């Protein structure tokens, strides 16, 4: 018999683990949000079908309204507005952080430029400010 390995250790499944198509869907995104206009479908008799047998012929006690509640969520317009506001606030915070980082980087660059502009070059005795291979003669050499 082959030894049992965990899926995480098997090289064949690494692609599947990293591919977002195979990730589990987040809880808040699973249910489709519908308006209050459609909330009557949860209570209306026209949308209610009672199942007595499942697809394989086994007897069950199940209704279609349970399926509707499993797949749909009635959203309040207030909740939607709050979600939009929170998303905008999060985007604003991200933009603000990026802007702060850019400003900080600009300040560091400016500081480095100031040091190079204010710097003093020390010339030792025997050296000149021009290169040593210049054509005119220096008295110290």
Automatic annotation (TrEMBL):
This is ESF1, nucleolar pre-rRNA processing protein, homolog (S. cerevisiae). Residues 76-96 are annotated as: Disordered. PANTHER family: ESF1 HOMOLOG. One of its GO terms (biological process) is rRNA processing. One of its GO terms (molecular function) is RNA binding. InterPro entries: Esf1.
